[in-house]
Amino acid sequence: MNNTSTVAKETAAGASAHRLTGPQVAALLRKYGAGVALVLLLIFSAFASDRFLQVQNILNVLRQISIVGVLALGMTFVILTAGIDLSVGAVLSVVVVYTADTVQTQGVLPGILIALFIGMLFGLVNGLGVTLGKVQPFIMTLGMLAFAKGTALIFTDGQPIPITNDSFLALGNGRTFGVPNPALIFLALLAVSMFVLRSTTFGRSVYAVGANEEAARLSGIPVRRVKCAVYMISGLMVGVAGILYASQLGVGTAVAGDGKELDAIAATVVGGTSLFGGMGTVGGTFLGAAILGVLSNILNLTGVSPYAQYLFRGGLIVTAVLLQRNAGRNR
User: Fold this and answer.
1) Do 175 and 181 form a contact (C-beta atoms < 8 A)?
2) Is residue 279 classed exposed, middle or buried when 0-12, 13-18 and 19+ CB atoms within 10 A define those classes?
């Protein structure tokens, strides 16, 4: 009888040891959730449309997610510090119209330089407003959204600016080794961002500021400089995304960035980056952008209205935030 009781206790103890706890489940969701979701979506898409797995379609998906993906890389840096940048879409519009005008009047190189300069300038203003002005990131970037939108509309007077420079258009529409140039640029920036966050002092500081700003300050991390820098990085990514947009579509328009901030935030959050700061990776952001791209692609292939895609994006954001909230409770 004693032996039976002992065996039962040992069995129960073994089962308890192998049972996943709340924090362990939360950690698994953060680490593998986006990857598992993407795999399931790929399998579903392959069965939903026989055109989905065609090489040309896959390359098209990569090209389509490049602009949002680049924006989301910058957004990841900002959100990791527990900030937010609602202005990326409107600033993208400013970058696109100024780039189009500069390329037409002065050439490709000046157009690229003006795009990067404008993006970083807006990012710097956002960063200074948040750090020195002590304005909440939501309010600061919301105000910048309105300011940038007005700037783009005034500059163009609401009229599109056509781009006819073939060299510039080849940047967004050409291919290298069969892969669309925008996808290669996105992947290159992904690799650089991954290196910065994983292997540099600045990257570790970004995580530290997002996890506990006061502790980071007490440990000697220049919190203001780090926070200002991430907004400038976001602005730089907007500059690159603006170049890709203008060169792909061949036109500068004041509505170029409408809704892009939603897509960038969705890709970042769906990829596992916590809106509360301190947790997330750009690798996850790539998965998030891929999920949005594949979802949009399969909806198009199956004839679903493009307007319905906003419903799915909104649902993805809410679901991801709820999962993060529950994970935070279990930490």
Assistant:
1) yes
2) buried
**Alpha-carbon distance 206 to 82, whole Å?**
10
**For residue 133, pLDDT beyond 80:** yes
What letters, b where the CB count within 10 A reaches 16 and e where it falls short, cover 69-83? Answer: bbbbbbbbbbbbbbb
Distances (CA, A) of 229 to 205, 233, 235, 278, 294: 11, 6, 10, 16, 32
Q: What average pLDDT is seen over the chain? A: 86
Q: Model pTM?
A: 0.87
Identify the residue whose tokens are 């949009």. Answer: 296
pLDDT, residue 15, reads: 46
Note whether 252 and 160 are within 8 A (CB): yes
Whole-number Å distance between alpha carbons of 58 and 64? 10
Residue 189 is encoded by which pair of tokens? 């920036």
3-state secondary structure the chain: CHHHHHHHHHHHHHHHHHCCCHHHHHHHHHHHHHHHHHHHHHHHHHHHCCCCCCHHHHHHHHHHHHHHHHHHHHHHHHHHCCCCCCCHHHHHHHHHHHHHHHHHHHCHHHHHHHHHHHHHHHHHHHHHHHHCCCCCHHHHHHHHHHHHHHHHHHHHCCCCEECCCHHHHHHHHCEECCEEHHHHHHHHHHHHHHHHHHHCHHHHHHHHHHHCHHHHHHCCCCHHHHHHHHHHHHHHHHHHHHHHHHHHHCEECCCCCCCHHHHHHHHHHHCCCCCCCCCCCHHHHHHHHHHHHHHHHHHHHCCCCHHHHHHHHHHHHHHHHHHHHHHHHCC
Backbone angles phi, psi at 162, to 5 degrees: -70, 150
- Cα→Cα distances 215→15, 58, 179, 210, Å: 39, 45, 45, 10
Cα(140)–Cα(125) distance, rounded to whole angstroms? 9
231 in Cβ contact with 85 (< 8 Å): yes
Amino acid at 31: K
